[in-house]
Amino acid sequence: MDFMKIIKSLELLLYEVMVWLVFYPLTLFRSIVQPLDLMDYADAELLDEEDDRYSDTLSPPIFLALTLGAIHLVELGWNLQPQEQGFLADDTNLIAFRMVAFSLFPLMLSLRLLRTREIRLDRKTLREPFYAQCFIAGPFAIGLNSGLFVTAGGGGATAGLGLAALTIAWYLAVQTAWFRRELSRPWWTSFFTALRGFLEALLLCIVLALAVSAF
Q1: For the chain, what is the largest distance between any 2 Cα atoms, rounded to a whole number of angstroms?
Q2: Could you please report the per-residue DSSP string of the chain?
Q3: What is the CA 166 to chain-centroid distance, rounded?
Q4: Residues contacting 56, CB < 8 A, separation 6+
Q5: Which range marks the domain in which residue 46 is found?
C-alpha cells in the first residue's frame, strides 16, 4: 500500500476525531435545549450535497453511536458496568446491543410517522425522520443510563427511577411536539401517536433483550 495514502488516511482520521471533540458537546447541548430546531436542521441538511451535510454538528447516527460509546466509558471509569453474563458479558457485544436497542426508538417512531402520513416506505423516505430522531435519542440514552448510574452509585433506587421517569417524560414531550408539527394534529392525538411508537420500540427492546439473554 502507498505510504502517502496511509499518512493521508491517518491525517483525515485524526482531524475527524478532533472535530468530534469540538462538535459533540455542541450537538448534545442543542439536542437537549433545542430538540425540535435540531430535528428541523437534520431534515434540511439531507437536502445538501453529501460533503456539505452537518458541517456544524455531528451526523445524527454518529452522534448517537458516540453517545452510547461515552456511556460505556463512564461505566468503565466509575466501575458502574452492569454485571452481565453470557453474550452481553463482552464489552463489544454490550455496546452493539445498546446501539441496536436505542436505534429502535428512532426507527419505530419514524415508521409511525410514515404510516400515519401514508408515505410509501423506502430507504429515502425513512432516512429523513430517522436522522432527526437520532439527535434526540442521544439525550434519551444519557438520561436512562444516568438513572442506572445513580442507583448503582448508591444514590438510591427512588432517585434513579425518578431521573429515568423524567427522561421519558422529556422524550415523549419532544415526540408529541414533533408529531403535532409534522402531522398538524391536536396535541392529545400527537401524544398517543408518540406513545404508541415509543411502546412499540420498548416492546422490541424487551424481545431483543430476552433473545440475547438466551445466549
Answers
A1: 61
A2: --HHHHHHHHHHHHHHHHHHHHHHHHHHHHHHHSHHHHHHHHHHHTTS-GGGTTTTS--HHHHHHHHHHHHHHHHHHTT------GGGGSHHHHHHHHHHHHHHHHHHHHHHHHHHHTPPP-HHHHHHHHHHHHHHHHHHHHHHHHHHHHHHTTS-HHHHHHHHHHHHHHHHHHHHHHHHHHHT--HHHHHHHHHHHHHHHHHHHHHHHHHHHT-
A3: 17
A4: 23, 26
A5: 3-213
Contact in structure between 139 and 32 (CB atoms under 8 Å): yes
**CA-based nearest residue to 53, from 64, 65, 66, 43:** 43
CA 71, 74, 79 angle in degrees (round to 5)?
125
The per-residue pLDDT for range 149-164, each reduced to its tens digit, is 887 666 677 888 999 9
pTM, two decimal places: 0.91
For residue 9, the one-letter residue type is S
Number of domains in the chain: 1
31-55 mean pLDDT: 92
Grid coordinates given for 87: 453474550
Q: Which of 17, 65, 58, 66 minimizes the C-alpha distance to 38?
A: 58
